[in-house]
Amino acid sequence: MSQKFQEIINSERPVLIDFFATWCQPCKVQSSVLNTVKENIGEGARIIKVDVDQYPALAAQYGVRGVPTLAVFKNGELLWKESGVHDVNTLTELLNQYS
């Protein structure tokens, strides 16, 4: 996953990573928000989900201490990272800002 992850975040298009866990209730809320964000931004950005229980090393590498944690990458650079549930408008604006 690590090499594939590097390929994904090295994209010229912004990539929103959703670090989540299957047992996390707020993560389920965030997931439905991200579906709407994806509809809003279309091909402007990618949204990728990473299960922290399946990929703990990846979560640790990016300092994920709580879920959900969202991170935006572009050209391999971490542009934004925050924990907690975020709303559709905030995330749509954020991704449009980096497109």
UniProtKB/TrEMBL annotation:
GO terms for molecular function: protein-disulfide reductase activity. The record marks D18 as: Deprotonates C-terminal active site Cys. The record marks Q25, P26 as: Contributes to redox potential value. The active site is at C24 (nucleophile), C27 (nucleophile). One of its GO terms (cellular component) is cytosol. It comes from the Bacteria. Residues 1-99 form the Thioredoxin domain. One of its GO terms (biological process) is cell redox homeostasis. Keywords: Disulfide bond, Electron transport, Redox-active center, Transport. It holds the Pfam family Thioredoxin. Disulfide bonds join C24-C27. Belongs to the thioredoxin family. This is Thioredoxin family protein.
